[in-house]
Amino acid sequence: MVAALALAVVLCTGLRRGRWRTNLLESWLVYAAAWGTVLALAAIVRDAPLAPAGVDLLYGLLLWGTWADLAPALRRRHAAVGSARIDETVAGSIARIASEYHDDIEADECFGTLLGHLREATESGYGFIGEVLADRQGRRCFSLRAVTTDRGYAADTMEVDDPQTAVGSVCIAGEVLIRNAQGPDGPERGLPPGHPRIDSLMVLPLYAGRTLVAVATLANRRHGYSPECLERLQPLVRLCGTMIRAWADARERRAAQAAVHGNLAAMEASIDGMAIVGEDGLFTYVNRAHAVLHGFPNGAKLVGRSWQTLYDERELECFRREIIPQFMKHRQWRGECVGRRADGETFPQELSLTAMADGGAVCVVRDITERKLAEGRIHRLAHYDALTGLPNRRLLHERLGQALLQARRAGRILAVLFLDLDRFKSINDSHGHETGDALLKAVGARFSEAVRGSDIVARIGGDEFVVALTNLGREQDVVVVAEKLRTGLDAPIAGNGETLKVSVSIGISMCPNDGTKIDVLIRKADDAMCQAKARGRDGCAFYGQAVNARVSERLHLEKSLRRAIEHGEFVLQFQPVTDLPRGRAIGVEALLRWEHPDLGLVFPSNFLPFAEKSGLIVPIGQWALEEACRRARILAEQGLGRLHVALNLSARHGGERRRSPAAHGRRSALPRRRGDGGDPHRTGRSQLGAQSAHPARTRCAVESRPLRYRRRLAAAATPLCTAEPEDRSTLHRPALAGSGLRARHHGDHRHGPDPGYPGHRRRGGDGRTARAASGTTL
Asked: In terms of domains, do 206 and 221 share one?
């Protein structure tokens, strides 16, 4: 009966399911139970006893087959119930997540909440969740954010990038991993320390769109994980990825806002001027330093105004021509320019421009006035002498190099003069360094005044100076400037309460004759200066022998002429002018001679041409005029009657603003007649003739003037005889008379013998008057 009942149960179960077996084992067990039941019935019918062991085996097999057939059905029923529960839990979790989320949620709260809902929906006993980030090499790695167990939450930092681990492989592959048996995962495989035993595992990649943003790991579900469970869980998984992306965006937005606020605070606190210029060229932000820098109280005064209002027109032209093209090309620019304040004052500034993505630009401005002043001081200390303010050796080389290039291109002459003060050391030792410094300052100032603005004056140390004369056309110009430099120290120098007298020795080298390199020219000029000192100081010497031969005599002559003026070495000799018909002298002509202490009597033709060019003719003529007037007074006191004194003066003497001949007449106590003044060229009537006296008359003729003035002077001169000339406009040479007279003594004090002197003329061509070249010294 028992076997029959068991067989009936098996048959009913098979009929209800619609099939008998699911696998070979269940089929075998059913057949075995059926055969056992048949045997038992046969034994009962025939009263054939069976062995107890056989009966037990047959019924044991029957029960095993029955359970094996019923167990899958029970599992499927439980799975269906679990799926329904997952759907219900997922729907509730989605609603709660949507209601609880806000932008200010913290990371632990956000990730912990999402992990809790996933764990609740799957009835997992364990789980953790984290972000997917990129490392320095650009590879994906897992960064733990939240861990949950039955005991609560634990936020331990963990990063996983090992592709051999479950989490690492999902980060790299981006696919779901399900494992319902205990695998090799353990602490050594990248799982958080202290995690419980893992019986089942599901690793979920969380996407936001197509971007993998996080990975959630669930473990130890009671009945394991299945694809059906994953499918039911997909809405919650997608929501978790979206919420994590929203949280990340909110975090970045908060970080950007914090950075903006921090940057604005930093910009306001910056000592540099900062501003943002929009694409339309108007200020959208200006910090306080930028506003104050340009003379405004705050940045609000500049917001909305054009940046061009902070620069003048000349600087804006520089912006249009140079700065803006460079900025548009490189998207940034940095350099120096000149800004303008609200009151119109300009100042140097350092400007930095950086392009922005929206088409605007960030401007950073710094006032560099103090830096420019410091740079100027440093440059002056590096390039100028601290005592005299003249260029030093370094700047001399720079400017001299430029001058050499210009002279070479233009084919002009450049001269280098090496000047050394004579006996300066003795002055410095005897009067003190302060007096010596004052002397050097005054000397440097005089040297600068003696040359052109294009020339170079430098002090290279001690009492040594270098003067570079640029763009010269003739070598003779060097001599003129050298003498100007030398004679510029003739006047005493007042320094530190004392009056000092100093001289200078000058050495000269020429480019290209003496060299074309700076060091060579300076060295040769120094050698020439030593030659000048060896000759007795207070002189000039050329390095080139050919030039020195042409110039040394001229320099020596000028120095001797100055000494002659100072020591009174000039004398006047007089030759009579005779009225031949009457046979008596009616006047005398003054002739200039130089009694040189070494050379003896020197005639005017040997020194007056140079005196004319050097300007010494003026003091020489001054002395000759005063001496002639003094001698005229002596003749008048001796009662010689109407005796005329003739004196030739240079045209330069007439152009100088000096004492008039009439004044010399007053100094000589000569009676003055009324005359007309004004025209210095008409000296015969207006000035020179006005000082004439009855006993003696001084007649002056200016030979170098044009012919019309010579005729005017000749017509204005007092007659030398009683007969009137037939043609006053015609100048004739005088006839020489008197035996024993030497013609070589003829001449005025300008050119020596000159028979064409306009005052020496014949009357009507009859030879009535003549001058005798007696050369008598009165």
From this structure: yes
Which single residue is written with the structure tokens 């960030």? 362
- Is residue 109 a part of any domain in this protein? no
User: What residue type is assigned to position 114 of the chain?
Assistant: L
Calpha distance 736→645 (Å, rounded)? 18
Provide the number of structural domains found in the chain: 5
Question: In the structure encoding, which two tokens stand for residue 668, read together?
Answer: 């000589």
pLDDT of residue 616: 86
Tell if the pTM clears 0.85, that is, is over it. Answer: no
Do residues 547 and 438 share a domain? yes
Does one domain contain both 537 and 626? no
Report the chain's terminal Cα–Cα distance, integer Å.
194
- 467-499 residue pLDDT tens: 999 988 888 889 889 999 999 998 998 877 788
Domain assignment of residue 69, yes or no: yes
**237 and 128 housed in the same domain:** yes
Nearest to 144 by CA among 386, 251, 154, 648: 154
Angle at 157 between CA 156 and CA 162, to 5 degrees: 120
> How many other CB atoms are there within 10 angstroms of residue 130's CB atom?
27
Return the number of other C-beta atoms located less than 10 Å from residue 761's C-beta. 20
Q: How far apart are CA 700 and CA 758, in angstroms?
A: 10
Does residue 512 have a cis peptide bond before it, meaning omega lies within 30 degrees of 0?
yes
542 beta partners: 508
* Boundaries of domain holding 521: 384-565
Choosing from 77, 111, 132, the residue where a domain stops is: 77
Q: Which of 537, 565, 593 is the last residue of a domain?
A: 565
Which parts of the chain sit beneath pLDDT 70? 1-84, 149-159, 161, 182-196, 545-552, 640-643, 653-778
CATH number at residue 491: 3.30.70.270
Q: Is the domain of 492 the same as that of 628?
A: no
Q: Is 198 within the bounds of a domain?
A: yes
Residue 665's closest CA among 650, 645, 639, 638? 645
Q: Which DSSP helix (H) or strand (E) runs through 116?
A: helix 107-122
CB 244 within 8 A of CB 206: yes
Identify which of 720, 724, 728 has the alpha carbon closest to the alpha carbon of residue 771. 720
| pLDDT for the residue numbered 317 | 94
Domain match, 573 and 710 both = yes
pLDDT for res 40: 64
Domain with 335 in it: what CATH number? 3.30.450.20
Q: Is the dihedral of CA 112, 114, 117, 118 positive or negative?
A: negative
In the numeric block, the tokens 């764990």 are attached to: 119
Do 395 and 369 fall into the same domain? no
How far apart are the C-alpha atoms of 205 and 213, rounded to whole Å?
8
State the DSSP string of 579-646. ETTTTEEEEEEEEEEEEETTTEEE-GGGTHHHHHHHTTHHHHHHHHHHHHHHHHHHHHHTT--SEEEE
**What's 666's domain CATH number?**
3.20.20
Q: How far is CA 385 from the centre of its chain?
A: 23
Residues 425-438 as b or e (16 or more Cβ within 10 Å = b): eebbeebeeebbeb
Hey, what are 719's tokens?
């007659």
The reply to whether 766 falls in a domain is yes
Separation of alpha carbons 748 and 651, rounded Å: 13
The 3-state DSSP composition of the chain as helix, strand, coil percent (nearest 5) reads 45, 20, 30
Given this model, what pLDDT does residue 498 score?
Answer: 80
